[in-house]
Amino acid sequence: MKIEQLIRPELTNLKPYKVYDFPHKIKMDANENPYEMPQNIREAIADEIFRHSFNRYPDPIATDLRKALASEFDVDPDLIVIGNGSDELINYLISAFAGIDAKVIFPIPTFSIYGICSELWGTNISAIPLSENFDIQTEKIISEMKSAKKSIVFIGYPNNPTGNCFSYQSIMDIINCNANSIIVIDEAYAEFSGKSFLPLLNEHENLVIFRTFSKAYGLAGLRVGYMIAGKEIINQILKVKMVFNINSLSQKIALILLRYKNQMSDLIQRIIKERERLSNMLDNISWIKRYHSDANFILFRTEYDSENVFDKLLSKGILVRAFNEKGLLKNCLRVTVGKPEENDLFISALES
Ligand SMILES: Cc1ncc(COP(=O)(O)O)c(C=O)c1O
Question: Fewer CB in 10 Å around end: N or C, the chain?
Fold first, then answer.
């Protein structure tokens, strides 16, 4: 008997997701917040750690954190579910609403986890390429939605790795197209774009908004994401949610960060300002075409082989993300906006 033959057939060709750890000095590859947590917030966290009841199971529904988020967004706390990162919520949503008779639809290139979770659950995937200028092909998506018995549509807003927010009207057309579909607007980078579909939540019971503490709030290591959706969707998600999915310390630390929201907003503004400065600097390099970003990372295309550029940057200690596939992302690289001095070093490494 081979263990391989015992696995669910739909998983046979799935490969474990690999995160490569290249030795580097400056990390600009994973869309993280480049700033270390400020000292005063660290002290509040240290104080929490000192008092924390590590011996107790966490609050399974993260009551305090949901309440704080609810007042932040002026929604009912019962419309929020907290996840171990939004990755976990993507998986929950697909496990609850997809399956063999459904389709998961998304534009590509986009965040890879939508596809990976779909494969996990044996769901059909419909990946619709973006247009040349990285906008969404609305008609094609709507036609896929209408031809499916039921579907989930994932839209990154801003999209990763292209960095842009698709046109508002395209997304409205998708939301209003009257198919048997759940529409997820993944707003992982919303704090950097200032754009959101949250105000539409009341009017559309099939709309889901994903947010995360991993990017703007600099908590990628603690894994706190959340979804906001109508009561009916939330009720179904609660059936598949692991009871103690979000650990007690992460719940508390996310709450502390919300308390220091204004201070975090200053850091976010600094990153947005740096995004603009970095964009201008990239525009001054003749062999680079830079794409518009609404996020904390920038996609650019080079006249050279992207792997080569990646290797040269890495030899100078700078880690970015390279895309070497053919088609829309050919010879593209993605750089996360760093601190001013990191961005300067990145640009001078590129220039040299
Ligand atoms: C569009 C998008 N959604 C979700 C995530 C994952 O967020 P989390 O850290 O909350 O799992 C990422 C991370 O890169 C992302 O780019």
Answer: N
Number of domains in the chain: 2
Give per-residue burial for 297-319: e unless 16+ CB within 10 Å, then b. bbbbbbeeebeebbeebbeeebb
Q: Which domain holds residue 136?
A: 39-259
The tokens 């529409």 sit on which residue? 183
What average pLDDT does the segment 17-25 reach? 88
Kindly state if the Cβ of 222 falls inside 6 Å of ligand 1: no
**Which of 211, 237, 259 is the last residue before a domain boundary?**
259
188 Cβ closer than 6 Å to some ligand 1 atom: yes
Count CB neighbours of 82 within 10 A: 26
What's the gap in Å between 223 CA and the centre of ligand 1?
A: 10
The CATH number for 323's domain is 3.90.1150.10
Taking the whole predicted model, whether its pTM rises above 0.70 is answered as yes
Band of residue 99 on the pLDDT scale cut at 50, 70, 90? confident
| HSE toward the beta carbon, residue 169, CA cutoff 13 A | 1
Cβ-based neighbours of 291, under 8 Å, separated by 6 or more: 134, 162, 163, 164, 298, 299, 300, 301
- Mean pLDDT, residues 223-237: 98
* Confidence band, pLDDT 50/70/90 cuts, at residue 1: confident
Same domain, yes or no: 345 and 236: no
| Residue 91 Cβ contacting ligand 1 at under 6 Å | no
Q: What is the CATH number of the domain that holds 222?
A: 3.40.640.10
Question: Which of 207, 235, 259 is the last residue before a domain boundary?
Answer: 259
